[in-house]
Amino acid sequence: MSALNVCNHRFVYKIAPTDPASPFYQRHDEMRQWSLSLPQILQWSDDSYSNHSSLGQGKDFIAMHFLIRSASCVAHQAYLPQLDGSSILVETVDAAGWSLLHRDSGLVDVCVTNALATAEMATKLMKSGAKTRSDLQSVWVAASLFVVSNTLLWIQYSNDAHYGTATLIQEAERGFDTVLQIMSLWEGNWTAASQWLNTLRAMRAMYRAAYLGDVDQSLLAEAAVPSWSPESSKFRPRPGDGFLSLHAASTLSESLRFLASDTSVEPKRLQTVWTQFATGWPHDFVNGDLYGTLQS
Q1: What is the pLDDT of residue 213?
Q2: What are the contacts of 127-134 at 24+ separation with CB within 8 A?
Q3: Which of 41, 63, 68 is nearest to 52 (CA)?
Q4: Which string of DSSP letters, residue by residue, matches 84-106?
Q5: What is the Cα 65 distance to its own chain's centre?
Q6: Number of helices (H) and strands (E), helices first, in the chain?
Q7: Does residue 26 sit in helix, strand or coil?
Q8: How many CB atoms lie within 10 A of CB 36?
Q9: Which of 61, 74, 76, 212 is an S-S bond match for 111, by CB 3.0 to 4.6 Å?
Q10: What is the average pLDDT across 85-108?
Q11: Alpha-carbon distance 205 to 284, whole Å?
Q12: What pLDDT score was predicted for residue 19?
């Protein structure tokens, strides 16, 4: 599912994601069937986590279930209809002929349900003690939290007819705040966590700007690449490498994808370009020296 998202599947595959012949449908169904086939001891529960934790496998157990949940968001979130002003004015269709404003209740339900479930798991684990909070710290949990954060923000600001209730908005707000709290705890061990926090706050600020017209000027004044970072990354998108052009980022969804691929974005561009890890697997995560990247 992550590979589909990385290749911007919505604008590549001409078969609708609801068609059983589509790669999207098939991969999600395979993933769903696999997760349903897990034996009872591997399914998510307090007892299962306690058993794995007592065997020294608590961190792996948590990471597995965060990945399972976020895997149902990472590609599905491309089908969350962004009804901000700029997107409504752009009559764009994807490769399958679907309008970007089209709302498929099945795809949205899968995405939102799993994002909220991930946030609930994170909140419960955060309240369960120091050992459990320590087990939360892994790159897989970090990637999963970034994936679901985009959906949590969508619930808060999109005014969706089904998910825009006060109860669900509050639940999404609490979930996003928990993500920020978790990342804050990691700052002491992972220097990269500071940039992740900045990105999450930028995502929230851009949702507010797009839907409420509330632009956070203090955020726009911050450097996109922190001074402590050794150029952050030498990667820069170039014509022909498959990454979206800055000037082509005319809608909210396109802007989210752009910021995910280019950490050199100028602060002033944050009004039109916004998200980082929301695309699922940022380029730094495929480094050979993954943990070195996190520490430096």
Answers
A1: 73
A2: 131/53, 131/58, 132/49, 132/53, 132/58, 133/185, 134/59
A3: 41
A4: SHHHHHS--B-TTS-BTT---HH
A5: 15
A6: 13, 0
A7: helix
A8: 8
A9: 76
A10: 79
A11: 23
A12: 92
